[in-house]
Specification:
This protein is α/β, with parallel strands linked by helices. The chain has a single domain, classed as Maf protein, CATH 3.90.950. It has 5 helices and 6 strands. A 6-stranded mixed sheet has the order 2-1-3-4-5-6. A hairpin with a 2-residue loop joins β4 and β5. α4 crosses α5. The longest helix is centred in the N-terminal third of the chain and has 16 residues. It is globular and about 55 Å long. Bound molecules: inosine 5'-triphosphate (ITT).
Length: about 190
């Protein structure tokens, strides 16, 4: 029954991230819509905590099944910075600022992580995904958003920004978290 199919609202103020999320969800067969709305971010070291809190606040307004995704880039040589502060750091210093912090650093290892919190009453749940790789010496590529031009995932020679959306979505941290989410939701809801 099409009418009773679950629809998830993807809540974010970052349109590029929202479009990417919708594309992943479409590929996983989930009906979703984008709600461009600022999320309330608590200060925490945990992406899971940030995502769940923001999802609860968004649910208080929307009152519809939703997901909030909190992601970040964790750079080993910088002790995991910018991690949960990625949004602020991206706005303040951008990819060039990160490359400056990494100048002369030989350990280029970094991981992108996503925590995606879903609220589908009465259930609340957080799923995580991670893709590791390396920080480049220079930004490369025009696709994607945020730190995509300076991140090369493992087993690739190209940055995320040099990949098409479909290519990134096959291997990304976000895809891995959403896939876990959809597999779990499918065990709970027949109508997803
Ligand atoms: P919302 O909180 O409104 O969803 P946001 O841009 O703040 O939007 P996040 O907190 O999840 O979203 O992400 C923080 C920053 O990390 C984001 O602004 C990007 O700069 C970067 N980022 C997150 N996911 C990324 C990805 O897949 N590729 C490149 N950069 C990403």
């Amino acid at each position: 029954m099409e009418g009773s199919r679950l629809e998830l609202s993807v809540v974010t103020e970052n349109k590029a991230k929202g479009v990417e999320a919708l594309s992943i969800l479409a590929g996983l067969g989930v009906k979703a819509r984008l709600v461009l709305m600022g999320k309330q971010e608590i200060q925490s070291e945990s992406l899971e905590e940030i995502a769940l809190h923001a999802a609860r606040v968004a649910y208080a307004t929307l009152r519809k099944p939703l997901l909030v995704d909190d992601s970040g880039l964790f750079i080993e040589a910088l002790n995991g910075f910018p991690g949960p502060y990625s949004s602020y750091v991206y706005k303040k210093i951008g990819v060039r600022g990160i490359l400056k912090l990494m100048s002369g650093e030989v350990n280029r290892r970094a991981c992108f992580k996503t925590a995606v919190a879903t609220i589908i009453p009465p259930l609340e749940k957080v799923y995580t995904g991670e893709t590791c790789g390396e920080i480049t010496l220079e930004p490369r590529g025009e696709h994607g958003f945020g730190f995509d031009p300076i991140f090369i995932p493992e087993n690739s020679k190209r940055t995320y920004a040099e990949m098409t959306l479909e290519e990134k979505n096959r291997i990304s941290h976000r895809y891995k978290a959403y896939k876990k989410m959809v597999e779990d939701l499918k065990t709970k809801y027949k109508t997803i």
